[in-house]
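Retry 2 of 3 after timeout on previous attempt. Resubmitting structure tokens to design endpoint.
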């Protein structure tokens, strides 16, 4: 375990933003903090990054006696701001001095992180001329500069276009191989692509935590959609390999199979019964359904 968060709460002008939040972050894990707008994601991450003081509760880094654990954390805020008149290199040198990186290492480290986020060619260009995606990558470079143990990213891809989003997620994919990552998003698909575990927040409360496959299981989803040319009623009911089903119409059914049954077996059973399969789909949006069920609870 890397961090233990215990009963964290924060309110603003009497309104609770985060209530009694407890969870642990395992060393080497990649965790997503999911939740709709206003759920309390930024408030939680800012408390973890020590930018906000909790009203109550504790945050403890395993084996780190110093209460100020900021050297262990890299943080990319939801809306990072920069000095537009600085170049990328000047900005990172400035940030590096603030986090006490030795002078002898600073230059090399700045070039290393700028290369990692593919900004080496823009190193000596003014930040004012950067696109949104470039600024976001510069923010990541700043968060990585002092080699943190825990990288905290607040909605790192929300403002990016599809390509920027994919590129940024790929960077996280590389980073998670040698550091612990916690990032927030309101897009389930982002979490699905790169993280091991999710925390779902709603109205400041933790609604669910665990690995995404267990979310699907727990919410009793029917992830396979089958359509045939002929009606399937009378057949689906008899198939012992099916765990659960729901008809959309007589020719379309949503099905769940037990873990040991391969979806091909369902196809085979239908073909054996002279049904012409016109559509067979493993539905990804079923996870989205589970997420919606959690946040509506
Ligand atoms: N500085 C503040 N002053 C007053 N209320 C605040 C402040 N910061 C957050 N809040 C309130 O706390 C609640 C949680 O906000 P927070 O920004 O943590 O949510 P979020 O999950 O990050 O939302 P988003 O997805 O929109 O970024 C909201 O109701 C918000 O209005
Ligand atoms: Mg936020």
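Retry 2 succeeded. Sequence:
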């Amino acid at each position: 375990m890397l961090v233990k968060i215990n009963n964290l709460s924060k309110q603003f002008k009497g309104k609770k933003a985060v209530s009694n939040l407890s969870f642990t972050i395992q060393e080497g894990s990649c965790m997503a903090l999911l939740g709709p707008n206003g759920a309390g994601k930024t408030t939680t991450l800012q408390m973890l990054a020590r930018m906000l003081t909790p009203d109550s509760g504790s945050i403890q880094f395993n084996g780190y006696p110093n209460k100020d654990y900021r050297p262990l954390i890299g943080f990319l805020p939801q809306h990072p701001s920069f000095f537009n008149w600085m170049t990328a290199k000047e900005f990172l040198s400035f940030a590096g001095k603030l986090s006490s990186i030795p002078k002898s290492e600073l230059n090399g480290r700045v070039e290393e992180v700028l290369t990692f986020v593919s900004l080496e060619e823009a190193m000596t260009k003014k930040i004012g001329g950067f696109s949104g995606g470039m600024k976001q990558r510069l923010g990541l470079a700043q968060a990585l500069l002092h080699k943190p143990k825990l990288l905290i990213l607040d909605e790192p891809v929300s403002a990016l276009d599809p390509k920027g989003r994919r590129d940024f997620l790929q960077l996280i994919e590389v980073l998670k191989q040698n550091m612990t990552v916690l990032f927030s998003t309101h897009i389930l698909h982002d979490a699905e692509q790169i993280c091991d575990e999710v925390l779902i927040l709603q109205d400041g409360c933790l609604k669910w935590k665990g690995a995404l496959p267990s979310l699907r299981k727990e919410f009793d989803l029917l992830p396979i959609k089958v359509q045939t040319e002929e009606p399937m009623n009378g057949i689906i009911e008899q198939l012992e390999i099916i765990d659960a089903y729901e008809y959309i119409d007589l020719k379309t059914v949503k099905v769940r199979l037990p873990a040991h049954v391969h979806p091909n077996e369902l196809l085979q059973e239908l073909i054996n019964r002279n049904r012409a399969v016109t559509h067979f789909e493993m539905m990804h949006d079923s996870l989205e359904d589970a997420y919606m069920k959690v946040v509506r609870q």
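Attempt log closed. The radius of gyration is 24 Å.
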